Amino acid sequence: MADFNRGDHFPVDPPTRDEVARLFDACGTTWTGRRDACLLMLMYRLGLRCNEALTVKYEDIRTIVQRRMVEGQVEENKVQTVRVMHPKGWSPKSGKDGKTRRPARPREAGLDTKSIDILDAWIQQRGDHPGPLICTNKGKRINTSHVRRLMPTLARRAGIPRRMHAHALRHAFAREMLEEGLNLKQIQHLLGHNYIATTAGYVEGLVPDVVGLTAARGSW
Length: 220
Prior knowledge:
Layout: H1 17-27, H2 31-45, H3 50-55, E1 61-70, E2 73-84, E3 107-110, H4 113-126, H5 144-158, H6 166-179, H7 184-191, H8 196-202
Antiparallel strand pairs: 1-2, 2-3
């Protein structure tokens, strides 16, 4: 059967905040529910790709101390973070021969209070043993096929009629970062894009109308 959608580009249509909240509620509070909620959190609140979220290890969670000067005094702030050590395109030899594409770089993102609560609830179920953070009850890594089945299942439980997939959460992250005032370069870093043009594609259609801005500028 021919794939009539091949090569087509569909408009960016990330889930709304309400839809995301319903997805989290649909996870429930069972052992697997806590795990799935943590997985969703990594993709929605940190912007991780599905495979990146699945390769995060327990050892990649850490607490860092940020220091800044406030009125002549050093102010310290502890931030719990997740390191993405194997981003998309990562390879020990990537780019070294000058022929392959630019190597992907590991990155790190901080957790907000609610994300920490979701993470802690999962770790209480999982335990603090090393290995994949998102794992089976035997400590093995979850397969991406599980996530492909999970998203439609959660959408049905949540009463969301439209198609829902893991990458949509990453688009929702980009949209919310834009709405909260981050610039394109900052969003690029958080998403782990090598090229800013890729990031621009994520927020295409989400940027407010700017056509009239040049006409409204003051005299010069």
